[in-house]
Specification:
With about 900 residues, the protein is an alpha/beta fold. The protein is built from 31 helices and 34 strands. The strands form 9 sheets. An 8-stranded mixed sheet has the order 4-3-5-2-6-7-1-8, sandwiched between helices. β17, α9 and β18 form a beta-alpha-beta unit. α6 packs parallel to α16. The radius of gyration is 47 Å and the shape is elongated.
Length: about 900
Amino acid sequence: MAQFARSPVTAVLGPTNTGKTHLAVERMCAHSSGMMGFPLRLLAREVYDRVVAIKGADKVALVTGEEKIVPRQAQYFLCTAESMTLDRDFAFVALDEAQLGADPERGHIFTDRILRARGREETMILGSASVARVVKALVPDVEIIGRPRFSTLSYAGAKKLSRLPKRSAIVAFSAEEVYAVAEMLRRFRGGAAVVMGALSPRTRNAQVQMFLNGEVDYLVATDAIGMGLNLDVAHVAFASLRKFDGRRTRRLTVSEMAQIAGRAGRHHKDGTFGSLGHEDGDAAFTPEEIEAIEAHRFPPIDQLFWRDGTPRTDSIAHLIADLEEKPGRPELRAAPEAVDLAVLKRLADDPLVIERARGQRQVARLWAAASLPDFQKLGADHHARLVSSIWRFLSEESGHIPRDWFAGQVARLDSVQGDIDTISGRIAAARTWAYIAHRADWLAHPAEMAERTRALEEKLSDALHAALTQRFVDRRTSVLLRDIGQNASDLPVTVEPDGTVCVDGETIGRLDGFRFSVDPATRLADRKLLLAAADRRLGKVLRVKAEELVATPDADFALTDEAGQAPGIAWGDTPVATLLAGPTLLSPEIRPDRALLALGQDVQKQVVARLATWFDAQKQKHLLPLVKMSESAADPAVPPVVRAVFAQLADAGGIIARIDLDAALAHLDKDQRHLLRKAGIDIGVLDIYHPGLLKPGAARWRSALLAARIAKPCLPLPGPGLTLIPAGERPAQMGARVAGFRGFGDQMLRIDMAERMARAAHEAIAKNEPFMATSPQIVSLGLNEPAFLTLMRLAGFRPVEPVAPAPAPVAEPAEAVEGAEPVEAAAPEPAPVGANWAFRGRQKPRPDRQPHGGKPRAARPEAKGEGDRRPPRDRGPRPASSGSTPAPANNAFAGLAELLGRNG
């Protein structure tokens, strides 16, 4: 490379993909030492890795604001432009992307490096050809060398997102736009890698590696990819041609368009560029722009931004004056006020700063603090408050930031919870503390804190990569889209022991029995795609499952009758069928799940036949009395009037209120009633039922079958073994009635126990014994007095008139004794509640309300005959009429006594 020996400063200028950076790395490695400055921390890290591979890690340093890797024997330094060390001697120095000297925000940094950064033996300035004229003017002895592009860059027109070729990069100019494009690619193309300037090198490298490895075919990025990042991209699509440059939203310059579009094509592979969408509007290229980009002809840059790179630090006033000084050359223009200068001005008005910032050392420390980058982009006012806190520590006697305070600020960021923006914000804040930790004179233990911030950034970077991948990459969608339309056998489908369904290694959902459910982590927009994939590829698996179901033993099936759910049949823990209304209560329709219906009629018939066989066995086990009632109702040998009773009982589930069958019972003679008793039916005072249907298993099945008939969910049933329960809310009352309970005030009693109490009352009265709420049978049962009175009234018993207790003797007043108070007579003790109430005799039972809360029905005439087990009528004295209400011993029962007397 003899051409570089003629001049100490060489400017290698040209479009992208000309090998400028590669050439500079080769030149630096040929020298004994060297330093290169880059516009991005990402690019510095990329070149650092390349030089380490050539020279070894012990000879190469990486120096950025937030990251410093400086071995003791380091000879080659890769830096961001701001971190370049200008007071150290290097044999070789290079500055990349020199055209950024025209950038309003950072341009003065690059201009200063063009003017002052020099290598002892060789200096290289790399950049666009548009900067040639101004570089020549600023560095008269520079040798300018142009380099042609290795490959052709051509315009490919506008393309819709769904028609973008693989290995494309889509460029957007805001995080929101990047996310929107990446989300669309995830839905339609399986995902995309995301690259933004705010990403840490670790996150950026992980994202790019997915693209390079072919895990995703698309990359969505900001214009950061235009700054020399080497990617294997075939096509660059612009989502927009407008960007916010920190001050206003404007259209990209042709040079900026070319810098980004030039990422397409690598080495000698040609590349293309175009817009995303339509050939009109702000997102479309003009013919002039297309011609200029393809020919690499751009308007020259006439001026670079400048600010004094070595301002005086003997006083704050001189420092500010030098930073605001105007350049004296036409090729330079004053840089706009940067954040560091704005912060410095705000601090200069602080009385504490004025007091402490005296002398060159303290002013230099103040300027160093003000130069802390605003990584979080919070603005000068907010950033100045943080800088002020740091400066206070730096200006105190120790001159160090307190260890505990610094550690606390770092610890606040140590969380990987939150969305992409939240984690990105933590990384930006972590960069601030990493920058501080790498200022050796700001902390008492800089190495320890630098390691903490490094570990924190790596942890957050890994979390951000995972969040980006989870949100914008869907490999299973990519897999399914790649093979859509092919036969199911073309993709390996596996069902794990826990039911997880995988297609080509990617989880698409879960199979519970015959029910496929989409992975709950799937977005709503992707559910249809995964359901369609399951329908196409699970047919064979489901047919095997159906064969297993047909061959399974009865013990593996169960009734599903949870309260609030439709009744059905489960295979193991998975529901496989639903019970619906059928021709009769005992003949419900067994409807298999939809997945089974899709397997064809043959499979469906086999499954239904197997479930029906199991259901018949359950009827014989739990509902045999009800089955026999149905058979008797259809038996011609049974008298028609008895068949009618059996039919009504079977239709009601084997339990019916006595009042609902009074009309039918009136037509039965003694022998016909005997047929009912022989069938095990108990004709009670209040209800007619078969005791076997009150068992827990029978109650469950009766509840499920009744729910299937009315197409409503099952009601809650009382617990097994209970005979007395609180009335509760209406659904609980309805469920209890289905299970064979009857309501008596605020309590519900199982009907067989109610009948037992009615018989006990009859037996007590037959022996001329009172039957009261305090009787042992009632007390042991737990029935309270209002419920007991209601039970007795409904059973037809009449109360005895209250008996007033004998008056207690009244003590005579004691004679007055001198010096003593008179003693008053003691009041009589009241009679216990209900103690003076008993029932005697029995009359027609009171009409009860219907089982589901209907109005009371009028009493029907009692059937003649001895077949029922009701106690005989009591012909004893009847209670007084309403016109002669007795005075009760306890006023709490006055109303009830009157009611019983009036309605007795």
